[in-house]
Amino acid sequence: MNNKTIYLxxxxxxxxxxxxxxxxxxxxxxxxxxxxxxxxxxxxxxxVEDAKKASANQAVGFCLVTAGxxxxxxxxxxxxxxxxxxxxxxxxxxxxxxxxxASLEQLKELKKAGVDxxxxxxxxxxxxxxxIVTTHTxxxxxxxxxxxxxxxxxLISGGIFGLGESDENRxxxxxxxxxxxxxxxxINFFHPNKALPLVENSIDKKKAFELIKLVKKMNPDSHxxxxxxxxxxxxxxxxxxIFEYGANAVVIxxxxxxxxxxxxxxxxxxxxNGYKIATVCSQ
Length: 283
Fold this sequence. Notes:
Largest sheet: 10 strands, parallel
CATH architecture: Alpha-Beta Barrel
Distance between the termini: 26 Å
Order of helices and strands: EHEHEHEHHEEHEHEHEHE
Number of helices: 9
């Protein structure tokens, strides 16, 4: 019996498909006209229901995600109101905001509204980034992560594998993540979409397992190594083996623009494989 404790997190895509950036891996960019659901603001009552469902499905983290480069005044106000509404429910969830680049002042406002953690991924290495994104810089992303610490929020920062990057790029990205000392590190595996300029994931399952192990090794003090987007597609029937390689958290339910497993299926399989699901998140 494996007694390792696994943490579950859920995502609510509260603003979808409205982004003007040109990230080649992202279906939310309006530039690529991917066939996804697009909307400016999700109703706050609906988001609160999403949070209740996440809590019922044993999630300890609930992430409010918006499309777009970063926090504008209007977006900040919307996320703050949403976070406050969810927090008021006393569901025991850690509220995570994932809203792109942000200033120190904006992040302090989110903290006041009840946000516990801020998620901002580096996505890939500084060297490779210009081949994937041209509308903003990697340095802006790194600075936002530093601002998260300054605002006294907990930092969540990771990246995506399978964008055509080299092994050197991967190590460079993981080193940069480690330099930020994030509390949690989300690992995503590129999920191809025929509308995107990138047509396939450049790594296989064996390499993906090795990368989880490497992320864990290079971020020994991070509380959670989470496998997020692309888990089902990359690992298939082997997806619950990710915990053998150092992961201890997953996203349950749907992702931003792609479907995930039904939460009950993940819970059943975790329990079947002898894992304990965390009921509280101390960090």
